[in-house]
Amino acid sequence: MNILSRNKKKSLTPVNYRQTILDASLKVFAKKGFQNATMIDVARAAKVGIGTLYNYFKNKDELFINCADRTIKTELDKIRKICEKQVCPMDKMTTYFLQHDLLLKEKP
After folding, report:
1. Is 2 part of any domain?
2. pTM of the prediction?
3. Rounded to an integer, what distance in angstroms lies between the CA atom of residue 30 and that of residue 98?
4. HSE-up of 52 (CA within 13 Å, CB side)?
């Protein structure tokens, strides 16, 4: 059999490396804190090579900012869905601020 004609194994499920890295970085930052976490820690947790990690994020600061952005967006989407149930604009605004307060207490 010719080496060039061999079929490479294809992954059955495509991997979204960016998402995988962000998920892993949340866990690493939560466990070790920003200062003590390293890019190698994140790469290991995400089960990707360090080169793959740097293909998506140029440094730990950029990774952390992307992680925070995604987390904030997710939490704000949850709050907006809760507020949509309110009909009165004043009730919507009150609910919005109460949910923010609750979020800050639950996830400082």
Report:
1. no
2. 0.72
3. 25
4. 16
Which helix (DSSP H) or strand (DSSP E) does residue 59 occupy?
none
Structural domain boundaries, residue 34 = 14-106
Residues 64-90 pLDDT 10s = 999 999 989 999 999 999 999 999 999
Q: Look at the block and give the residue holding tokens 């952005």.
A: 69
9 domain-assigned? no
Residue written as token pair 């390293």: 38
Nearest of 89, 58, 74, 81 to residue 26 by alpha carbon: 74
Q: Is 10 in contact with 54 (CB distance < 8 Å)?
A: no
- Which tops the pLDDT comparison, 8 or 19? 19
CATH number at residue 58: 1.10.10.60
**Residue whose C-alpha is closest to residue 39's, from 63, 16, 20:** 63
| Residue 6 counted as domain residue | no
- Report how many domains make up the chain: 1
* Amino acid symbol at 102: L
